[in-house]
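Incident review: delayed structure delivery

Summary: a single-chain prediction request sat in the queue longer than the usual turnaround. Root cause was a stuck worker, restarted by the on-call engineer. No data loss occurred. The affected request and its eventual output are reproduced below so the record is complete for anyone auditing the incident later.

Affected input:
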Amino acid sequence: MKYDVVVLTDHRYVAPKTKTPYIENVLQEDRLVLEALTKLGLKATRKSWDDPDFDWSMTKYALFRTTWDYFDRYPEFSRWLETTARKTTFINSKELIHWNIDKHYLSDLSKAGINVPKTVFLEKGSKISLAEAVAKAKSGKGFNADTYILKPCVSGAARHTYKIEKDEIADHEDIFRKLVTEEAMMLQEFQQKIVLEGEISMMIFNGEYTHAVLKIAKPGDFRVQDDFGGTVQDYVPDQEQISFAKSVVNAAPELPIYARVDIFKDNNGNWALAELEIFEPELWFRLNPPAADNLARAIKDTLSA
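Output delivered after worker restart:
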């Protein structure tokens, strides 16, 4: 059977035997997208990206939704991405995925005029110590804070993300040395207002704002992800926030069909970009089910173009 769209997940969420609240959210999100596509007359199904029995030439498009094991299997995923791109078309495009999957894209957006946190990229295999990286950040990037965030350039769900105080740098040298040997890392100023005020996620489909949520870290933590006890609530952004989010999307190499723009007030009180997610972002359709219809229409418009 040929499909118009295959909604991509990872193997843990295809037929889970145990259904935690987290897994229930995953299943609900994917179900809402599938139902929205089907309502528009599109033939759609849901598959794990690593399904060994599916012929990817049997679908016109593959839509990345909950492929949340890719960063733990990145070499394998990268090979699959290259092979499958010759058999079907990705949503968002392969070119956008390659650009967005690595957080070096923040440098491109900064050059395009988007306000992003001050960042130093530490390439894989670098011999620099963490103390030297901090000194470089202070002298070359103008870091003013004495608290830092260290994280991989390819990651998700706050994997290997560390909040480091100035007097804790020596304590993190060993883990930093191990990580930078295996992958590129990035060092940023810690943004205090994310903890105090939260992070706003705005969903932009085909360049138009659809809905937003506010993510707040649990008391005593700095990570807003619900994996670490963070909370999520509906949020109504003002026009300034929406305009900033749209400017971020429009600065991408091409306009994505769907995007999530995470913004916050930086240490200077200005709106700044935390992340632009156009690969497999959580989009919180469960808090705004009609937005799944918006995405489905955007996809059908693409199919009809």
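Verification: The radius of gyration is 20 Å.
Action items: add queue-age alerting; document worker restart procedure.
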